[in-house]
Design goal:
With about 220 residues, the protein is of the alpha+beta class. Helices cover about 40% and strands about 30% of the residues. The protein is built from eight helices and eight strands.
């Protein structure tokens, strides 16, 4: 499966584009969203600014047909709403690829993470082109499944280490004990475990938001 991050410059018209540009210091996190044949429905969390003016502008926007405040403080709110123009959801639905949540929007730009077959990600890009929506590709990479991440020997020793308490605090299994458990020399156990840990940590870090290579580095 291919994983990609796109930054979409939203056009004028959708409520989140207009309201987020009017409040550029606010962050809009779409927690859940559903697009149907008619209106779209979503739950959004808004943080970072005095919340009253943001909610007023959101409620007054012609694309928002219904709004209900679920939770609110002075600088944060969670809002359930109905909108007549869920542009991003329509593009994703037509391409047959789901947008991963939460979806973050700030000052008219939406950061979108998607995972799927390469042809469907290309179809999503084609949909944005059809709608006249500019976007930038931050990265594209192949997502590795658990069965492909480690070799058989690495997977065996990692599972044995977890079961034996090698990673417990305090540790209840030494490296020597672990090597005997899997039937290899201590040096082999050490090297195999180190390579497995490096693969697992690298894959984990790659999934942390903000820790991604630029497109020209991949």
């Amino acid at each position: 499966m291919t994983q990609a991050r796109l930054v979409v410059d939203l056009p004028e018209g959708p409520w989140v584009a207009d309201v987020s540009r009017d409040h550029p210091d606010a962050t809009f996190q779409v927690l859940t969203a559903l697009a149907g044949d008619g209106p779209g429905f979503a739950l959004v969390r808004i943080v970072g600014v005095p919340i009253g003016p943001v909610l007023d502008d959101m409620e007054a926007h012609p694309a928002v047909t219904e709004l209900s405040v679920v939770q609110r403080t002075d600088r944060e709110a969670t809002v359930q709403f109905e909108t007549s123009a869920p542009l991003l959801l329509i593009a994703a639905e037509r391409a047959g690829v789901p947008i991963e949540m939460p979806l973050e929007i700030r000052d008219g730009e939406a950061t979108i993470d998607v995972t799927g077959p390469h042809d469907r990600l290309s179809a999503l890009a084609a949909q944005f082109d059809e709608f006249g929506v500019p976007f930038e590709v931050r990265y594209v990479r192949e997502r590795v499944g658990a069965s492909e991440l480690l070799t058989d020997a690495q997977r065996e020793i990692v599972l044995a280490a977890v079961e034996a308490g090698y990673y417990d605090t305090p540790r209840t299994c030494s490296l020597t004990d672990l090597a005997e458990r899997v039937g290899v020399a201590k040096s082999t156990a050490s090297e195999t475990l180190h390579r497995a840990e490096a693969a697992i940590i690298t894959e984990f870090v790659d999934d942390i938001p903000g820790y991604v290579q630029d497109a020209d580095e991949t």
